[in-house]
Amino acid sequence: MTIQHCKNCGTDGSGNYCSHCGQSYKTSRISLPVLLHDVFHFFTHLEKGFGYTLKQLVVAPGTMQRRYLEGYRGRHQKPFSMFFICASIAALGRYLIFEALIKYYHLPDGGDAHFYHQYWVFLFIVLMPFIALMNWLLFYNEKYYYAEMLVLSLYNLSVLLIGVLLITALHLINPYWNTDYIDLGFALLYNIVTFYRFFSRSNHWVVIIKTIIATALFFQLVQVSEDLVKGLVR
Q: Which long-range contacts (CB under 8 A, 24 or more apart) does 110-113 make?
């Protein structure tokens, strides 16, 4: 058995990877093929984790989050990175949509494109702890830790942001449609299904009522925050 020396942490061992830090014993000089391999590895790993997690959040909302908290985490994108990816996609998508509406439909520039490009993701990062706190307080009797409710909220909001992006795209068909009620209906339906399954052992009607309250408070919080930030940056 050949003993190898880890260049990263200095630990001696055998096999292909260091038992202490996990780095490969074999390292090569940084070249263009090596960089391209790293890029390829990143995107294939992202596709497996991100794609699988998004699919599970769509087909098994609530169940997926509960199983993640129970320890089934190997194939899933981690909650914070999932949220950042979805929020960034949604922000960029809404920015491009509003830019297209201004360019092709000659709608007045109310600053919405600039807001979604510069501030939308940051706004949700700031709001996320408060959204999780609100859900934790409403479902306090379920005995989940705040951090566990934060995980649930991060995954939940990831899907909601992608859904709102798709609904916003309807403005490309008719820019004068008011899609606020579609946004609310989608969020309410998804939240009810998610919380209904997540708290499957609780009284279903109590869960539904609390979910309606949580969704209404969430929309109010987001609306007030968006109006406040838009007013400050214009």
A: 111/230, 111/233, 111/234, 112/230
Distances, alpha carbon 143 to alpha carbons 133, 198, 214, 218, in Å: 14, 13, 17, 22
Burial (CB count within 10 angstroms: exposed 0-12, middle 13-18, buried 19+), residue 26 = exposed
Q: What DSSP character marks residue 21?
A: T
Q: What are the structure tokens assigned to 229, written together? A: 């930030």
How far is it, in rounded angstroms, from Cα 7 to Cα 23? 9
The Cα 143–Cα 45 span in angstroms is 34
Among the listed residues 41, 76, 35, the one whose alpha carbon sits nearest the alpha carbon of residue 158: 76
Q: For residues 211 and 191, is the Cβ–Cβ distance under 8 A?
A: yes
Is the pTM of the predicted complex or chain greater than 0.85?
no
115 CB burial (10 A radius; 0-12, 13-18, 19+): buried
Name the residue type at position 177.
W
d(Cα 18, Cα 26) in Å, to the nearest integer? 10
Indicate the SS3 state at residue 76.
coil
Closest C-alpha to 195, from 212, 218, 217: 212
The tens digit of pLDDT for each residue in 76-116 reads 888 998 998 899 899 889 889 988 988 888 877 766 777 77
* Pairwise CA distance, residues 175 & 188, whole Å: 24
